[in-house]
UniProtKB/TrEMBL annotation, chains A, B:
Name the UniProt record assigns to this protein: Inositol monophosphatase
Cofactors (names): Mg(2+)
PROSITE patterns: IMP_1
Keywords per UniProt: Hydrolase, Magnesium, Metal-binding
Length: 255, 255
């Protein structure tokens, strides 16, 4: 772990988190992107611009991409790359004032180095550096046990199951129950803590999965497309995050 | 508000909550009831027995019913009646170690008097006495604004929508998005806070809805069957908890 960089990230996360909490006291200035449920707020843009500015000031040679596209165009994964989601779960941020997160993935030559997920309303920062375990607010995390799909909760959205996307109904029928939080970070954190055996999504953008892919890699947990292929960190993709004890079982049902 | 009774309830809730938190450190001793996802633990029974004992010691003439049936058989709603859910969301308690609650409804001659919901892992007690507003940990709650179904999140389980129970697909399609937490108390609390416009369930038992019905009555929020009929507090029923600004809109879609 690069401790200087780690301390900088913690400072940036807390500063950005405080500005998000403060923003909940005022008008959120919401704009629709592709539909009424696909929102962007002034704060999505401000937080992304803040990280971009701080990273570039500290590490001018690093590349940065983020959800709101106010960073830079990145065509190669060579060197060090930061992937940022300034607010994951913007609809929850606007409507619930909780269940949203800031996510940061750090990659070198395309390989995950570190991931950070900040559950702002809960005041919990999850982080992991590959090779060094996973922590919540600096305390080592001990996940709850997961043994089999039939003994596990799973996380995914309604339309995936209604349309039987990638045979997901078979996964739903075998699992103990379904939960849905409307926030990728919440699905990923539930798998990390062992509260759910898997989280699946029909399409995640790089900023939706980069932090989770890095943290789960550090834990030795599989993350892939439902057909088992690995993710390209510059491309949108369907994704399954799973506990190692149920990954193969889920993949067999989905293929 | 009967302040002596209120203080007793707070003491009982905290004592029971502490024993639930402590239980998460040990083996939960789970039994299946009707299926693998319908569980009861030693703690469901212990917490219910604890409330029953304390209530009967303090108020020998009050009647008490609870989920685990270790209370008493109640055939009439005359006099004062306590309705207890010792752990709402037992599956979450077992699998997630969070997203569960203790719920207490207090009724007199069949009319709601007070409701308590204790989100144990979050350390938050919601309470309301009819005529006196709603509080979280003693602080008056200001709900987030809810204007229309199309601008609201809703809460309900996957199978309700997959099977189009009571035309629920029309509600889903009009709403901004769906969330599902696997715990009635979490659905009710989300409507109370204004994070969701409605919570619907195909069947709730009296202990699943009694506290929420009392709190929402205190707030002036409607709670009914999807056909608009009111609930019988001694009978299981389909239930819709809704913000007043979207209740009629939802009911029209469901009938």
């Amino acid at each position: 772990m690069n401790n200087e960089l780690h301390q900088k990230v913690l400072t940036w996360l807390k500063t950005a988190g405080n500005s998000l909490l403060a923003s909940l006291e005022s008008d959120l200035e919401v704009e629709e992107k592709t539909s009424a449920s696909d929102l962007v707020t002034r704060m999505d843009k401000e937080v992304e611009a803040y990280f971009f500015r701080e990273i570039k000031a500290a590490y001018p040679n690093h590349q940065v991409i983020g959800e709101e596209g106010i960073t830079e165009e990145v065509k190669s994964t060579q060197g060090t790359l930061w992937i940022i989601d300034p607010i994951d779960g913007t609809l929850n941020y606007v409507k619930q004032h909780r269940c949203f997160a800031i996510m940061l993935g750090l990659y070198h030559d395309g390989q995950p180095i570190a991931g950070y997920i900040y559950d702002v309303a809960q005041g919990e920062i999850y982080h992991a550096w590959v090779g060094q375990g996973v922590y919540i607010n600096g305390q080592a995390l001990t996940p709850l046990p997961i043994n089999s799909l039939s003994e596990s909760l799973i996380i995914g959205n309604l339309v995936s199951f209604m349309t039987n996307w990638s045979n997901s109904q078979a996964v739903f029928e075998k699992a103990l129950g379904l939960r849905y939080y409307g926030c990728s970070a919440y699905g990923i954190m539930a798998v990390i803590r062992g509260e759910a055996g898997l989280y699946l999504s029909r399409e995640l953008k790089p900023w939706d999965f980069a932090a989770g892919l890095a943290i789960m890699t550090a834990m030795g947990y599989p993350v892939s497309r439902p057909d088992g292929r690995s993710l390209n960190i510059l491309e949108a993709s369907p994704v399954i995050f799973a506990h190692p004890n149920i990954y193969q079982e889920a993949l067999q049902l989905m293929n």
